[in-house]
Design a protein that fits this description.
about 325 residues, Hypothetical Protein Yjia, Chain: A,domain 2, seven-stranded parallel β-sheet, six-stranded antiparallel β-sheet, 11 helices, about 25% strand, ATP binding, nucleotide-binding
């Protein structure tokens, strides 16, 4: 069985190490191996992670989003060897530098064959500072990407934020990533930050898609979130070809794609999930959620990619597939 990996991200000063220390004290994160990344030649953050486990490693030499992805793979390979030799590791937590765009990290975890033999991406928890978060989102594209790819959003420093500031930031975060549950760091249960895949497949994707996604605020115009809904069953050949083309040609703009699809000829729904250039293998659920209307829904979080381009492209692929099917029947 593969070991689940949780990615803990958030901009500089968001409180990642503080939350990590708290999580490591809980039974849910017992037996966790921790990989910590610090930008620069000399790491500091790993000294602040309480050594409740011996499996704490520092990835040196730069930001996880670029220079040390090879180090990440090597660290996980080394950890896999130790697990095979009997080291009891139940989970891996990767704490990224605050400067990292997590998408390349996720691509490594989702596509590298050496990693996939022993590990499986569980989810991304993004921390946002309630005091400085709005200004950071305005100024830093990496912070926007961190929020957009999150499976869970965790708001920190709410106790010292000015009245109304945390509420306004919460509304903005929900607009940027309507599918991610949002918690306050002081009260979030450790168990709530586990099993993102099961939450998405089992119901959260359905709940997210059940209503149109809100639009991003005036400072977030380069990022747009929306939902496409389809009444009739979709042809898998057309949808999969279109998703592949979109990831190949405009992957840098696909911050997140999630969908629950009614595929022609199938009795059960299909879940799709992608980050930039990489899509998880589609997963078929055992059955439709009780009371679901069986409409297909695709939720997008895009950067610098107009909605109409996505809609027109998908419509064209579906139409082409339908025409081919008609011709083959004839």
């Amino acid at each position: 069985m593969r070991v689940p990996v949780t990615v803990l991200t958030g901009f500089l000063g968001a409180g990642k190490t503080t939350l990590l220390n708290r999580l490591l004290r809980t039974p849910d994160f017992a037996g966790a191996a921790v990989l910590v990344n610090e930008f620069g030649e000399i790491g500091i953050d790993h000294l602040l992670v309480e050594r409740l486990t011996e499996e704490v490693a520092l990835l040196e030499g730069g930001c996880l989003c670029c220079m040390v992805r090879g180090d990440l793979v090597r660290a996980l390979e080394d950890l896999a060897a130790r697990i095979a030799a009997g080291t009891p590791v139940r989970r891996v937590v990767i704490e990224t530098t605050g400067l990292a765009d997590p998408a390349p990290i996720l691509q490594t975890l989702m596509t590298d064959r050496r990693v996939l033999r022993g590990f499986a991406l569980d989810g991304v928890a993004t921390l946002v500072d309630a005091v400085a978060g709005a200004a950071t989102l305005d100024a830093q594209s990496e912070a926007m990407a961190q929020v957009a790819v999150a499976d869970w959003l965790v708001l920190t420093k709410t106790d010292i934020a000015a009245p109304g500031v945390a509420a306004a930031l919460t509304a903005r975060l929900r607009a940027l990533n309507p599918g991610a549950p949002l918690f306050e760091a002081a009260s979030v249960p450790a168990a709530a930050l586990l099993d993102a895949a099961n939450i998405s497949a089992g119901g959260r994707a359905v709940a997210v898609a059940a209503q149109p996604a809100p639009q991003a605020g005036r400072h977030d115009r380069s990022i747009e979130s929306f939902t496409l809904t389809f009444d009739a069953p979709l042809p898998w050949q057309g949808v999969s070809a279109w998703l592949g083309m979109l990831a190949l040609t405009r992957g840098e703009s696909l911050l997140r794609v999630k969908g629950l699809l009614n595929i022609a000829g199938e009795d059960s729904p299909v879940v799709v999930h992608g980050v930039q250039h990489v899509f998880h293998p589609p997963a078929m659920l055992a059955a439709w959620p009780q009371g679901h209307d069986r409409k297909s829904r695709l939720v997008f979080v895009l950067r610098n990619l107009p909605r109409e381009v996505v809609e027109q492209g998908l419509s064209a692929f579906i139409a082409a597939t339908d025409e081919k099917t008609i011709m083959e029947v004839r």
